[in-house]
Design brief:
276 residues, 2 domains, six-stranded antiparallel sheet, two-stranded antiparallel sheet, 5 helices, binds flavin-adenine dinucleotide, Glucose-methanol-choline oxidoreductase C-terminal domain-containing protein, GMC_OxRdtase, FAD/NAD-bd_sf
Amino acid sequence: MTSTVQPVPRPTPFATAPSNGPVPASNPRLPGLGAELQDHLQLRCSWRLTGAKALNTLANSLWGKAMIGAEYALRRSGTMPMAPSQLGVFAKSRPEIATADLEYHVQPLSLGAFGEPLHSYPALTASVCNLRPESRGTVHLTSPDFRDAPRIAPNYLSTEGDRRTAASAIRLTRRIMAQSAMARHAPEEIKPGLSFETDEDLAHAAGEIGTTIFHPVSTLRMGGEDAPLDSTLRFRDLENLRVADGSVMPRICSGNTNAPTIMIAEKASDMILGRA
Ligand SMILES: Cc1cc2nc3c(=O)[nH]c(=O)nc-3n(C[C@H](O)[C@H](O)[C@H](O)COP(=O)(O)OP(=O)(O)OC[C@H]3O[C@@H](n4cnc5c(N)ncnc54)[C@H](O)[C@@H]3O)c2cc1C
């Protein structure tokens, strides 16, 4: 890809997340606490389909809902027990890189945004995320009162590399959907929409259709001289306190975060028991 993505000039929902207060200073006793947040931003590209059996249409009628319930009651199969995504794919955003930097989660449904109802027509969503984002955000308390919401600033798409990868990911998704195997379903792009063409447009669209895939990590990094935790997961400035969760990852892993978090917990328990 020959990319000329420029900084996104327009505000986008995530790239410039609204703040709920001034940016608080980090705790001087615990430098690095709440810094370096990383996440996989999923770009939820969706297509309207013809003649496909999709969850949208099934779940949008009483008859469809009854069928879903009956299938589960009689066969323990169908929509009720199905995983949130039916297809996963790893891909490269550029041919020259050694390993995949994109992950797809494909679902037989579409909706405007999380929490909104499914569209009334058959559709699919091909969610694609950048597995090696460069952008870093922050999470900070805004007051000593635990009832006050923290200020979470993910800073998605804040580097040119991330914007370039986002543009590339949307283009690749369009190419996949244009393959002859999909032709019988006459896919029509809903999101981001064909009006987004240039790299700059696509980077902006990524901010519009992008949302967390729920993999926040790295707000309390381990290892390295400047990290808040040492290599045994202990706070450098507090005795006898270790942290073992997704926040300790120095940078986000290039895949889903649950298994690596379990691995961190297993390793921590071995260290605490003196077995590692
Ligand atoms: C909707 C969703 C879907 C996901 N899907 C996947 C997936 O398909 N694959 C995958 O690999 N990962 C997935 N993840 C990510 C994965 O769940 C997380 O990476 C992982 O759970 C992180 O583990 P953690 O221990 O860091 O945090 P958590 O699992 O959030 O654990 C934090 C724990 O701390 C507890 N806690 C919080 N505050 C306090 C307190 N003050 N006192 C005591 N306890 C407290 C909470 O109750 C919770 O049990 C998903 C996440 C979400 C939200």
